[in-house]
Amino acid sequence: MTEPEDGGVVLTPEQKRQRNRRNVALALALGSLVVIFWLVTVFKLGGAVLNRPL
Amino acid sequence: MSFAHDEPIETGALPALPGPSLAGVEDYLALLKPRVMSLVVLSALVGMVAAPEGLHPVLGAISLLCIAIGAGASGALNMWWDADIDAVMARTATRPVPAGRVQPGEALAFGMTLSVGSVLTLGLVANWLAAGLLAFTIFFYVVVYTMWLKRWTPQNIVIGGLAGAMPPMVGWAAMANAVSLESALLVAIIFMWTPPHFWALCLIKSDDYARAGVPMLTVVAGPDETRRQILLYALALAPLGVAPAFIGLGGWAYLAISTAGGLAFVAHAVAVYRRREGEPARKAAGRLFGFSLIYLFALLTALLFEKLAGLPAVSWA
């Protein structure tokens, strides 16, 4: 980690690589949550989803 | 009277902010204690499979995931709280928090998020009894065991072991929305298995615990008393391990495996009790530790396969 003149933080290539990997893992976790809640909704509704007046 | 500061604020006295995170994905996975999680998954799965049918298999699988994540979350919170003693023990010094790869605050946030998320999701997917039991398990492990008992009493892992023993009951509750004698018996088996399992490890790693100031039985009461207690628990565990075959839970395969396993467990405990000096004592403790893992996995997998294969429980009528 180095500090530029404006006081900000510049990440090293290793820190950037780790951050990217964390971002991918977080995206996968969030995507999995979406799928899980979609599955829960479908299986909780079950056959009852068709039980409505047409 | 002036509201202005007369003295300049000493900004240098403020604690330095942590730099950019160095944590890798594998560090966050390590916070979940994957090896402990594997036992939780297996024991909870046995509870679910043994329970009366009550939940769609897909919802059951998601419930099992919630239980696993809840167990992992309590592991992360344990590592957050225990970072100071983990740092001075050789076995745990390389864990993400004491090694400095994950900041304590990150571990706390990670553990809390997963704890709340897993409990709420289990409540929504299965039922609130199971969610309540999972919340109790996390609370018991983090607050009662980690924060209170571990640094206070040599009975820490005896009482705290309840947290590790609860998953079969949570799994059963997720499927059946009830608790039962069968699930309580599975909890009792893991509860009685925990002390001899951990004390065998303590006999090998006693210096580690002494250096960290953790009052394990080996440190407070000495190795000989620990060996006596291991033998007593083994003698209680062996018949308890067979008991599922007498209440309509285990079949003939389970009866055979639990009987042979229980006798072997006692034999290993006797060896630990008799060999008290030098390398033979160390080897005996190491063998008991290794066998205790095999014993519990054998019991749980025997029950699992019997239930999945539809084999009947032993009938004594």
Automatic annotation (TrEMBL), chain A:
Transmembrane regions listed in the UniProt entry: 24-45
> Which organism is the protein's source?
Methylopila turkensis
The entry's protein name is CoxF
Q: Which UniProt keywords apply?
A: Membrane, Transmembrane, Transmembrane helix
Automatic annotation (TrEMBL), chain B:
UniProt xrefs under CDD domains: PT_UbiA_Cox10
Gene Ontology, cellular component aspect: plasma membrane
| Reactions performed catalytically | heme b + (2E,6E)-farnesyl diphosphate + H2O = Fe(II)-heme o + diphosphate
Where does this protein chiefly localize?
Answer: membrane
> Where does this protein reside within or beyond the cell?
Cell membrane
* Pathway(s) the chain acts in: Porphyrin-containing compound metabolism; heme O biosynthesis; heme O from protoheme: step 1/1
Which biological processes are named by the entry's GO terms?
heme O biosynthetic process
Q: Which residues cross the membrane?
A: 28-51, 58-81, 125-145, 157-178, 184-204, 230-247, 253-273, 285-305
Q: Which domain of life is it from?
A: Bacteria
Membrane topology of the entry: Multi-pass membrane protein
Give GO MF terms, alphabetically.
protoheme IX farnesyltransferase activity
Record-linked InterPro entries: Protohaem_IX_farnesylTrfase, UbiA_prenyltransferase, UbiA_prenylTrfase_CS, UbiA_sf
Q: What is its EC number?
A: 2.5.1.141
Please state what class of enzyme this protein is: transferase
Q: Does the keyword Membrane apply?
A: yes
Which Gene3D superfamilies does the protein's record reference? Answer: UbiA prenyltransferase (1.10.357.140)
Alphabetized Pfam families for the sequence: UbiA
Asked if the keyword Coiled coil belongs to this entry, the reply reads no
Q: What else is known?
A: Carbon 2 of the heme B porphyrin ring is defined according to the Fischer nomenclature.
Would you identify the family this protein belongs to, as annotated?
Answer: Belongs to the UbiA prenyltransferase family. Protoheme IX farnesyltransferase subfamily.
Q: What's this chain's function?
A: Converts heme B (protoheme IX) to heme O by substitution of the vinyl group on carbon 2 of heme B porphyrin ring with a hydroxyethyl farnesyl side group.
**What name has this protein been given in UniProt?**
Protoheme IX farnesyltransferase
